[in-house]
Amino acid sequence: MNDDLRDHLARELAQQDARGLRRNLTGRGDGLADFTTNDVLGLARDPEVAAAIAAAALEHGAGTAASRLLGGDHALHRAAEGVCADWLQADAALLFPSGFQANLGLLQAFAEPGVLFVSDAANHASIVDGCRMARAARAHVVVSAHRDVAAVERALKHAAHAPRRFVVTESVFSMDGDRAPIEALLDVCERHDAHLVVDEAHAVGLLGPRGAGVVSELAERGLDVSRVAARLVTGGKALGQSGAFVVGDSTLRAWLIQRARSLMFTTAPPPALAAGLIEAIRRARTADAARSTVLRNARRLAAALALPEPDAAIVPFVVGSSERALELAQRAREAGLDVRAVRHPTVPRGTERLRLVVHAFNTDAEIDRLMARLRDEARHATRSASPSIGTARALAVVGTDTNVGKTVVSALLMRHARARGTARYFKPVQTGTDSDTRTVARLAGLAAVEWLAPLHELPLPASPHEAAAAAGVTLDPDALLDGIARARENARDAALVIELAGGLRVPYTLRFDQGELLERAALPLVLVARSGLGTLNHTQLTLEALRRRHLEPRALFLVGEPHPSNAATLRALAHVEHVYEVPQFLRLNTEALDAWLAQNDLEPVLSPRPNPSIR
Question: Are residues 424 and 354 part of one domain?
């Protein structure tokens, strides 16, 4: 490695250190009570599982030395697949080297031009990346709000023309530990001819008959689960191993062998791993006592910390900042407890936490010690998480380009919001001498306390990085993010409209653009575009770029002379729930805005409907 690259990487690492975001590779804490790993049934240390692995390694060797398509397939792989399929009462299963590879391969294999994937916003990174791969195959991906069945249904309705539709969810989510509304999703899939893909990583082993997961639980209750196209069962959670199975019917298995690149082009798992999985499944099927212990103690821990009752083994203890999470994790370790901090970007900014995992082997004394250590912090942790961060009260206004009407849309949103409560307007970076803040204040009739001063006012009417260079200043990404966080905190319970500069890829520095700002700030957003010529291409490209970052607009505003054909096409293709047309007002004043608002309801944009399925 040459010095330039080494220096660059060292600077990046130093910045990670300064933000409290640097990661390190760590094993289990020696001598510490384990409240961090996913080995909830203790099978990773089970002597019978270890003996099965050792015996298979001695008999069949250390590895396969090839992909399963080029000589690496083994009878033990197929035996493990049969055992897993029987456990989940399915026709077939296919073994992958890891859960990450299984999700990548499954979603990529389903992806074709025009196919729709609706993915829960809290889905695991492997699903996120699988959806990104699907987009490369010209599939459409819509990110639905967490556990929001109504949002899923709206996305399916808008994509009635798609050749196939898939809803993708975890059954128990890896960071929040909550359970997906699978029964309601099955109903929505049935009504809209869609298919359900369920990652059961954190459910299998703990929930359902014989620990076979949530889908098996619903099937045993008599529900029709035929809309479930595939389930994913990881070996690295309750089974205590590695590897993963995609479970479905024999046609799915055959299709994945043809299309799943993460299976086709990787070395097959060692036969010994397959032997360990067979024994771990045998042990998990009869582990009812261990399951009961895990679930009982997880609920006891949550109750002691005044947290919602967990659905499985994961108890999230949100503290609201990386620094606080790291501090509490270190203090827990000093008390003999292996507890880990989970920070942004793994979880949204402002929801940094301790991710507590309860195991069958945790003793009552260990759990009591953890409760005692954190009980005094529970009240402080609740205060530490900013009430405004991550809520629906902040909304960014971003455009497909400059001069598309963001300021008019911001004024409309502010006018609507302040008529129903308190509201604040904020433009972090103003370029040019024509102040958007003053324009919004005039059009929306804002008092001085209803707008926040920009962080930077740069005279040159150019992109932020050029305007900053002309003014002799540098726009620091962390300072911009901190300024937005302060604005959200200062706004308290008010609606906060944040108007950004230019289009999505406008740079603040040569290495930091507006898309990254939106992603790192975790801001809900609306997209503003021109109504006329060129909007189909520009809007679709901007939506594609947003969705690559897992950002989903709440609404699309088309500004300018009405163009019915463009509006109808975008309503069909954009997969955005709310599409508004804002005309070129003959007189741009408060009365004109009020007349438009009298005919158009912005309440669903500023205050999305809560989903009754969310507890």
Answer: no
pLDDT in tens, 459-481: 999 999 999 999 999 999 989 99
Q: Is 59 a catalytic residue?
A: no
Nearest CA to 159 out of 192, 123, 208, 195 is that of: 192
Question: Residue 240 sits in a domain of what CATH number?
Answer: 3.40.640.10
The answer to whether residues 451 and 484 belong to one domain is yes
Catalytic residue among 98, 126, 171, 174: 174
Q: For residue 46, is it within any domain?
A: no
- The reply to whether 124 belongs to the active site is yes
Q: For residue 49, is it within any domain?
A: no
C-alpha torsion sign, points 318, 319, 324, 327: negative
**Is the Cβ–Cβ distance between 406 and 398 less than 8 Å?**
yes
Query: Could you confirm whether 344 is annotated as catalytic?
Result: no
Q: Report the chain's mean pLDDT, rounded to a whole number.
A: 91
Residue 86 lies in a domain: yes
174 is catalytic: yes
So what's the pLDDT on residue 382? Answer: 45
CA dist list (Å): 527 to 41, 346, 487, 531, 560: 47, 25, 21, 12, 14
DSSP structural state of residue 72 = I
CB 196 within 8 A of CB 167: yes
Check whether residue 417 and residue 376 sit in a common domain: no
Catalytic residue (one of 34, 39, 81, 170):
170
3-state secondary structure of 500: strand
Q: Distance (Å, rounded) from C-alpha 280 to C-alpha 243?
A: 12
- How far is 301 from 12, CA to CA, in rounded Å? 38
Residues contacting residue 29 through CB under 8 Å, at least 6 positions apart: 36, 333, 338
Whole-number Å distance between alpha carbons of 390 and 387: 8
Count the domains in the chain.
Answer: 3
* Active-site residue (options: 38, 171, 388, 566): 38
Six-digit token string for 139: 């599939």
Beta bridge partners of 353: 318, 342
The proportion of the chain whose per-residue pLDDT surpasses 90, expressed as a percent, equals 73
Higher pLDDT, residue 428 or 154: 428
DSSP state of 420: T
170 is catalytic: yes
pLDDT for 386 beyond 60: no
Catalytic residue list contains 202: yes
Examine the fold and report which residue of 384, 419, 437 is the final residue of a domain before the chain moves on.
Answer: 384
Catalytic choice (77, 140, 202, 427): 202
Instruction: List the catalytic residue out of 74, 77, 124, 158.
Output: 124
**Domain CATH code at residue 364:** 3.90.1150.10
In angstroms, the first-to-last Cα distance of the chain is: 52
Is 13 within a domain? no
pLDDT of 349 over the 50 cut: yes
Which run of H or of E encompasses 75?
helix 75-87
CB 393 within 8 A of CB 422: no
Find the helix or strand (DSSP H, E) in which 584 lies: none
